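Hi R.,

As promised, here are both runs. First protein below:
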Amino acid sequence: MSAVPGNPSAVRPTECIRSEDFDIRTDFPKYRVYSGGKCIETRRDLSDVWTKDHVGFLIGCSFSFENALTAAGLPPRHQKTGTIVAMYRSNIPLLPAGIFTGGHYIVSMRPYRPEHIERVREITRAYLSTHGEPVAWGWDGAKQLGILDVANPDFGEPQTFEEGEVPVFWACGVTPQIAVEAASDKIEGLVFAHEPGHMLVTDWTAEDLQKLKPGSI
């Protein structure tokens, strides 16, 4: 997160970003700008809208465990097809905090065969700081999450299913944007977020992330 309000370059813990010229306003591939709970535009540079009152938070992403899945012979489909991972609005409620009430989780999805799911769970479980293991899987799991049409994601792109595969769902870093939407005009000023599928690459390695525990940073 930003170490000093308004400072787009000071980050803690410092090991996360070691570059001296890091700037949270420009170093993401693409941003969303929210006002009154609505996304009003996308842009590649926040320099002229960032203020002295803004503070940034860096949230873990499930992309961080995908190298481990690939190394185990279980590469995510979107990596093979060159698409953006599919993301969906779920019916899992977020814990309320202050003005942030009424929001629900976003989940990402990767297709796998049922016999591979336990191995997928085992591999991703080690990455607790980047969402950990799946929250649901299978077609019944999709229904339990309130997802009725896997072919039409709310964010990202549809994924191709091979014969016998089922959807596997993880928590997703797009979720805070849904909390902002739910807060609506209770938030004063502009809120910025990454465009889904356009994340920041940090200096932490996958091995570093396995050592982190939720709440330790």
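And here is the second one, sequence first, then its structure tokens:
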Amino acid sequence: MIKPEHRFISEGQGYFGSHENPKTETHCNVWDWDQLRMIKIKGTAKLFPPEVDREAPILAQFADYLSPEVRAVTVDEDGLLSGISTDPIEDDTMFVPYLHVSTFGSLAACRTIQYSKLQELDRLGPGVDLSSYKDESGIPKMVAFKFNPWGKTVRLHMSWDEINLLERLPPHPNILPFDRVVLDDVESRVIGFTTKYIPGGTLENLKVPFRLEWMRQLLQVVDFLNLELGIMHQDIAPRNLLVDPDTHEVLLFDFDMAACGKKGLRDGRDDVAGVVFTLYEIITNDTHFTSIPHWERTMDTVQNIPVWTCNRELDSDVSAFRNLLNEWVATRKSKGDIERYLNAPNRLTWPDLPTSPDYNVRFEHGKTVDGESIWVTGPRMRRTALEIGQYCFRWERPPQSRLLKGESSVR
């Protein structure tokens, strides 16, 4: 089940006047990762001040009880529901121009699965479901299904890069295996992918003991990605590490922030620093560094802490982990490390995200002072795409709380 603190994400406040006037009408769009839909919340500036996320906890109180047709809600100054709207004009969901599988080229050789063949078993997190399907031999398989329901440009690029990267990664015992490309049933558009499902949760779980050998495996797979393939994961964290109960090896996953050479490389997110902060968190359960922006923190801060207070079962003394880490960091941070990364001998490459043909379809975007239509192309609202007859894949689904009470989740 999606953690309550991760379920809703607000796009901020929109003020129809000065935000300093407490009576100014205010609209907030909130995305619900559970029901995979956008809800607009209307209130006043008094209730929704700038840069304060009050809309998400307010919506959380009644989100599960709203009809699927509801597009907007109005709340009073106490945050209590006072009205609803089913008018499609209130829906500010962005159109997602999913690309046809043929656009991906290299995915032609990948195994595929239609979305309708996936049965939802659980919702693991934002944009990730636990699903099952029967393979060509009729054997049931449990998989993690990752998808992007947002039409934001940065999300489209992240999805494109991740699926292209995963398809090109050579098999590795410490990287979660890619499984299949997920296609919509109507037009064979790529809407996501599946990976092998590993039970037991991630290394965020303090109940999972940690072994020195797993640390060695993490260091080795990071070296392989960085120095052999020219890939920087950029999001190494306990939440992105699993332990395979069959092989007893650590597995790295979630490559949606990965960089390839200079492309996508972000300040303060190099994998060496990521490993340092990750191992410190795994051993101590001290998570306060995660609240510090990556570009404002340095791994020296962690390495120079005299005592790492252990709050997890380990198979070796903390000093053994720290010594191994310090030796590895010294090797990686020697002169020329970034050059070795940029000049990796087997660098992976893939084409940039192409412009979707859907974005080439013109739509009316207002009128001139003379009353003539203004026609534009590019990104658009989903309601606009529907109005001009474009195909829109729909993600909306019932809240999981209802499914837990016995409603069917079969698509």
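A quick note on the second one: The chain is about 25% helix and 20% strand. Let me know what you think.

Best,
J.
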